Amino acid sequence: MISKDEFRRALGCFASGVTVITTKDASGHRHGITVSAFCSVSLAPPLILICIDKYTGSHHAFEENECFAVNILREDQQYYSDRFASHLDDKFDGIAFDENADGIPVLKDVLVNLECRRVNAHDNGDHTIFVGEIERATVTDGNPLVYSQGNYHQLRN
């Protein structure tokens, strides 16, 4: 078995887009975390998955609420990524967002918003894999924020 450091180094070579996943817990408190472990699962029905560390402070919120939003960041939104990866008490302070019909915070002016309803949760290792069905998508123009080998990158046209 490889070490955690070897695993991080190897998988860090895989470039990924950067998302902020948002929801509310049972008491109505807003939660948002930066997640790069996101991918499509199925076209019909439209399913995606997100992987969330069981030890993150927001994990319980994704267990408690079946609704969540995937906010795919634009190349100029590293600030959002850094903010939602932090341990701030109110990560939404100063961030533009709306609440959808389910009361989930949806970030404004990002590349893509995917409003999802959880259909499955799978307990694996130190993460939970949440599978969501996309109920609404909003797509804008621009390029995605990319993360690889511990750094943010921009795509070149």
Strand order of the largest sheet: 3-2-6-9-10-5-4
- At CATH level 3, the topology is Pnp Oxidase, Chain A
Number of domains: 1
How far apart, in Å, are the first and last alpha carbons? 40 Å
User: Which architecture does the CATH hierarchy give at level 2?
Assistant: Roll
Count helical runs. 3
* CA radius of gyration: 15 Å
Shape by Cα distribution: globular
State the total count of DSSP E strands.
Answer: 12
The major pleated sheet works out as: 7 strands, antiparallel
Broad CATH class = Mainly Beta
Whole-number mean pLDDT: 94
> In what range is the share of β-strand residues?
35-45%
Structural class from helices and strands? mainly beta
The helix content is 10-25%
User: What's the CATH H-level homologous superfamily?
Assistant: Electron Transport, Fmn-binding Protein, Chain A
What's a concise summary of this model?
By secondary structure, the chain is mainly beta. The chain has 3 helices and 12 strands; from the N terminus they run αβββββαβαββββββ. It has a single domain, classed as Pnp Oxidase, Chain A (Roll).
